[in-house]
Amino acid sequence: GQQVQQSPASLVLQEGENAELQCNFSTSLNSMQWFYQRPEGSLVSLFYNPSGTKQSGRLTSTTVIKERRSSLHISSSQITDSGTYLCAMGGSNAKLTFGKGTKLSVKS
Amino acid sequence: AQTIHQWPVAEIKAVGSPLSLGCTIKGKSSPNLYWYWQATGGTLQQLFYSITVGQVESVVQLNLSASRPKDDQFILSTEKLLLSHSGFYLCAWKVGDNQAPLFGEGTRLSVL
């Protein structure tokens, strides 16, 4: 079946440092999406990025289909960026397969 | 404005008791709706999806069922809860073909 591997599992940064989160998927996909999960559990959609590069503020997502990977770059990290970042691969029947997430902690 | 509302926000239930979780969409007709579940510390999994009233497809079997009684309503239920049903349940609807789904605020369920 479809598998999504995220790395690292956790990351601790000093405020102002950059972060690079990785997502690798096992099969061909219809879409690649990135979400931020708040500590209480709710999700915020960050990027719908099936291929190429997209940027929103300090966040940049790059998906390379032929290499079966996607990355999320966070520049100049802030304490409020702390939380869990999830990537999800879209397949047939609109099924989303999520990775286990990267838990980010930004300290002052 | 399009909104998605889940209820209840949290539940504490006994093993063997019934459960009903709800999700309502406002501002969109005939939405594609989804139920997701995440065990504490676990991976988010898609449980069910529905593209129209009365039609529900199961993605993962967890001794749960789902129904679409109205165009804007999606219900998740079971007659007998298990300890393994504990976790966080999210409802979502697909905004468009090339867009990420919009998620509700979720329901946290503790089965004791």
Label this structure with key terms.
heterodimer, A: 108 residues, mainly beta, 5-stranded antiparallel β-sheet, 0% helix, 58% strand, B: 112 residues, 7-stranded mixed β-sheet, 4-stranded antiparallel β-sheet, 57% strand
Description of the molecule:
The complex is a heterodimer of chains A (108) and B (112). With 108 residues, chain A is mainly β. In chain A, 0% of the residues lie in helices and 58% in strands. Chain A has no helices and eleven strands. Chain A has strands spanning 4-7, 10-14, 19-25, 31-37, 43-48, 52-56, 59-64, 69-74, 83-90, 96-98, 102-107. In chain A, strands 2, 4, 5, 9, 10 and 11 form a six-stranded mixed β-sheet that branches. In chain A, a hairpin with a 5-residue loop joins strand 9 and strand 10. Chain A is globular and about 40 Å long. With 112 residues, chain B is mainly β. Chain B is globular and about 40 Å long. Chain A binds chain B through residues 31, 33, 35, 40-43, 45, 47-48, 50, 86, 88, 93-101, and chain B through 32, 34, 36, 38, 42-46, 49, 57, 59, 88, 90, 94, 98-106, 108.
- Computed over alpha carbons, the radius of gyration of chain B is 13 Å
Radius of gyration of chain A: 13 Å
**Number of helices, counting only DSSP H or I runs of 4 residues or more of chain A:** 0
Helical residue percent band of chain B = under 10%
Largest sheet of chain A: 6 strands, mixed
> Largest interface, counted with CB-CB under 8 A?
A-B, 22 and 25 residues
Strand content of chain A: over 45%
Q: Unreliable segments of chain A (pLDDT under 50, ≥5 consecutive)? A: none
- How confident is the prediction overall: mean pLDDT of chain A? 92
Largest pleated sheet of chain B: 7 strands, mixed
Total strands of chain B: 11
Which percent band covers the strand fraction of chain B? over 45%
Low-confidence stretches of chain B: none
Characterize the overall form of chain A: globular
